[in-house]
Structure of LuxR family transcriptional regulator:
Amino acid sequence: MTTEIVGRDTELAALEAFLRGPGGALVVRGDAGVGKSVLLDAAGGERRVLRAIGAEAESELAYAGLHQILYPLLPYAAGLDPATRATFDPIFGRGSDEAPSVLALGVAVLDLLALAAGTEPLLLVIDDAHWLDPQSVAVCTFIARRLAGHAVHLLAAVRSEIVSGWDTAGLPSLVVAPLAAPAAEQLLAAIAPELADTARDEILREAQGNPLALVELPRAALPSASSTPDNRLFGARIAALSPPVRAALLRAALDGLVAGGGAGRVRYRLADVGEALDSGLLTVDPASGDVVFRHPLVRSALLRTASPNERHAAHRDLAELHEQDAERYATHIAAATVDPDEEVAEALEYGAHSASGRGGAASAVAMLTRAAELSPTAAGRSQRLEEAAFVAAQAALLDEAHELRVTAGPQSPAAALTAAYAALYREGDVRAAHRRVAAALSGAGALDADTRARLLNLLLAISMFAHDEAMWRVAEGFCAGADEMSLLYRDAWGDVARHGHGAGDRVRAAFGRIGDGQPWDVMRLGVAAFFVDALAEHRDLVRSVAAREEHGGAVTNAMTLLQLVMLDQISAGEWDDALATGRRGLELTVEHGYTLFEHQFYGFTGLVQAWRGDVEAAHRAADRLDRWARPRGVGYLTDLAEAIGVAAGLTSGDYEAAYAYASGLTAPGTFRPYSQLSLRTLFDLVEAAVHTGRLDQAQAHAAAARDLHLPGVSGRLDFLTTAALALTDHAGAGFAAAAAHPAALQFPFDRARVQLAHGMWLRRQRERSAARAVLTEAAAGFERLGAVPWAARAQAELKATGPAAGSAADGASALTPQEREIAELAAGGLSNKEIGAKLFLSPRTVGAHLYRVFPKLGVSSRASLRDALAGSS
């Protein structure tokens, strides 16, 4: 690294120390012209450097910055597996339009960087990083936090006065301040030794220690101090250019001219600009040989000095250049248009649809707002403002949605939607939100089909949160003549016990129709799928869209999708993953002030804590939930608090408390209309009633589930109804059928509970051998879930069956060679992942083998494997 830079010894030493260290990231902060770019250039030295420069013109185009970064690395992509390579396709306009999640893309970029740095360490330099689009910033900050252990360093330069995603990334920073007076004088003397004392003093006073000003002001006339920095430094030189060269530079500025930036996509190319090179406005990048702006402020000065007509003409040319790129074309043709124009408004709508489908909801809002401005008719303007307000609300931009609402007018559907979103998500005021949306639906004005569907779907969602029968009746009253999807949401989100039969098939068909769809479509259908227990079939799509929209996309939908991911993980027994998802969701909701969703995540976390035996934490979660939700009438959350109480009571053996909570959700023998959780606690209520000697109530509740035909709603309700009937049957005939139910394996905790109940019944019937087999499997299931109190209960029941008839050797002889090898490795303390690595098996396959090994050896935990295997040798 060179040190021939005046007054920057401290900063250069800090950069040198950073680059000598292990892989990592450093954000260089400072005012415009303070010398960040010079320091980044000096940091490169003899290293292999990959450069990218943010451009204001592309700051709203999703993944434009990442395109710059990735393109030079594509030759290394051949070393990646096909699935990882395919992750990059949407960034380069290949394959699906759906952008991958930040997680998937970030990991893929890390893999690509690791390959590129395999033979020689790599320095990734991003200048003007504050102008990168939000999606690119999200990926860059993701990888920046994970460079430890890689031979890759990342330097990002940002302006102090411009807010960007780099500010909240938690990365180490190097602040570059203006030069101290002695250094400023030294630099000016080296640049312009011939200056008279008066001119030197004036320049020093004007520059205020800014190195770029000290370098450029001697070459420019000194205008008034009120002019902007870019005009002070470069305005005169731009004005002196010939019109064709000035026009060419303006087009390059609007198209984001950077070194290597034209690679991989159509971009405006500069030609015949020797005049601009001579004036010092352009330079040649030594690494790529490309002609580039000497400094980012040249770009700013070009935009400031151009007349409106010149800018419009430049945008028209660029629109023609990018006519095959929906988003770039729309952006440029709109900037070139002054008067209302329906074709341009339609182009913006099309570009907005493309942007939102790729995770760029904020870009879509800007395009739709501009489309409204260019609409020739009042109806078109209103419809596009409604669309912009809707997308803004889905992107968690409620303040921006509110501004659009004000523009649209206080009586507009946009006003109703935005006010209802704010009341629901931020305040949990379901009553006010419900009244406002119902009033909009019943208003005198005619509503187009899309707006009516959005209002109706929101009213159904509010009713779902309220768990209030009267609100549901109002919402159902607006469903006459509704579209197919709204009717599906009515049946799946509402009184699913009475109207949900066949909804699972309708959900599957709808998912088939929408494909990847818009995020709000996937979100709504995902909620419907959860309530009819069909979410597992669509988990890959739900998880991918949740991750994609989490950063800069439809964030409101991402919060709900993360809830669905968490609930699916709870159902599937992936409890550690569920808690991690809950933490991610909680951070997102707190960041955006979505208090309703924040409390939902607390509640779902409390449910896992209750089943795992952290009863104190579970009760805290339930109490927090109830204190916030009950005064507001958020019935879904008060029911969730009750469900946590049920779970905590059953886990701790406080069956009276469990019964009190469960019977509060719904009276035994009935299922409260419009209460989703009264269905989900079906088996819980029956179990609590049996344990407290209320057999009549238990039998009535199980029979009510059967007579209401709950088994026809979903496989899970069929499984739970079968188990509840078995629990209340003295003959115990249904236990085997429940445990063998096709849906049982999808819900391992419920299955283990049924096995525990079955084993207890078998022991009371003195069928000890059968009881041991069932209880051993139940204990192993509980242990895998981390449900410690339940595993202990199963172990106690297992112990009560007496010694096993056979020995460990008998069970060991039944092991296959592979099962024996896996068992020995597990007994040695290896994890499933470590065993899989040794035997070239997936961790899931290893777990499946151990699932069969435990009952053969008569053990229920890994800790017992060593003794069991030793006894068989």
Remarks:
- The two ends are 66 Å apart (CA to CA).
- The domain at 342-553 is CATH 1.25.40 (Serine Threonine Protein Phosphatase 5, Tetratricopeptide repeat).
- Residues 221-226 have pLDDT under 50 and may be disordered.
- The longest strand covers residues 152-159.
